[in-house]
What we know:
Layout: E1 6-8, H1 9-16, H2 20-29, E2 35-37, E3 40-44, H3 45-56, H4 66-82, H5 85-97, H6 102-122, H7 128-145, E4 156-162, H8 169-180, E5 184-192, H9 194-203, E6 208-212, H10 219-231, E7 236-239, H11 245-258
Parallel strand pairs: 4-5, 4-6, 6-7
Antiparallel strand pairs: 1-3, 2-3
Helix pairs in contact: 1-2, 4-5, 4-6, 5-7, 6-7, 7-8, 9-10
Amino acid sequence: MTEPPLIELRDAAAELGVHYQTAYRWVRSGQLPATMVAGKYAVSRADVEELAERRTRPRPVPAPGPRRLEGQADRMHDALVSGDDAAARKVARRLVEEGTSVQELITHVLSPPLRRIGQSWHDGEVPIWVEHRASAVVERVLGELTPSPRGRRRGTVMVAAVTGDLHALPTAMAAAALRDDNWRVEHLGANMPPDDIVGFCLSHDIDVAVLSVTNSQVEAAVRRATASLRESGIPVVVGGPGRGLDELLTSVRAAHDRA
């Protein structure tokens, strides 16, 4: 069998476009196999070509870290306060393209600005329509970013809030995070009569029901709906203030596994 042709390491460095010391470090680290010939390092042309090909492959870009997400949350805040749909969509779309999950986007980039705006309204710094408009922008952003998942789904989840709970955005956030986690989601929104929620779940082969609660006055209705669903064999996860999306996703998976 013919031995592959060898070239001196200095010539290989020139072909690779690097300094000799860089090529030498590659030899020392094992990235570039070499042998000693007449007191000099020699490498096979095949190994040089393989290393050159590896160096030209696109490197995966790491997902944005906490500092970048915090900065983008400030940009999102400005976009939401001004009602700038295009700017809000641009921030969200770019982060998702860079590898940010929808759950991380909601938790670190969308929710903090909404809390700041809510506090500003509470303190009398902005009128209520600023908060409502910001919430509507976020709903549109989420709708654009979360198409139905591809491939094998984990199962089917229904997401809703009962009559009297008028906040639709928490249900939209939960639905978006669940879709991103590869669930098929039936999103019924807010202010849904409990009997209709139960009837829907029974007629649509729902694996897990998620009930969002932001109004303490509806807790009794939520308990009744939860009892009815569980009696029918449908697991229920109840979300509310203080429960993060990571906890919600974990609870839904666990409920589905136990069923």
